[in-house]
Amino acid sequence: MPRLSDTMEEGTIAAWHKAVGDMVKAGEAFADIETDKAVQTFESFDEGVLLSLLAQVGDTLPLGAPIAILGKKGEDVGAAEAEAKKKLAEIAGGGGGGETKKAEAAEPEP
């Protein structure tokens, strides 16, 4: 999930402009993402064939979460999807459980 505003911490996929199998060019409208302030069109940073959508319309994801996989036509996406799921679990916090716990710092000895 790209950062589209300074205050954005998560985004919701509002619409996809491309479907799996479509060619995506750098700078081309790729998805509409709803932020805390507005719905904005996200332009792709990369180019390639859209191999997999990792988020569906309505999904809300934290910043940095993978939303799609681009590559070469016919490329196997199994390993890339597994890596993306692992990254999402890490971003969501706490490894696989999606839970983050705050640890209290000990007071320094005088």
Describe this structure in words.
- The protein has about 110 residues and is α+β, with helices and mostly antiparallel strands.
- It has a single domain, classed as RNA polymerase II/Efflux pump adaptor protein, barrel-sandwich hybrid domain (OB fold (Dihydrolipoamide Acetyltransferase, E2P), Beta Barrel).
- Helices cover about 15% and strands about 30% of the residues.
- The chain contains 1 helix and 7 strands.
- The chain has one helix at about 80-90, and strands at about 10-15, 25, 30-35, 40-45, 50-55, 60, 70.
- Strands 4-3-1-6 form a 4-stranded antiparallel sheet. Strands 2-5-7 form a 3-stranded antiparallel sheet, with no helix packed on it.
- β3 and β4 (about 40-45) form a beta hairpin.
- The model is unreliable at about 95-110 (pLDDT under 50).
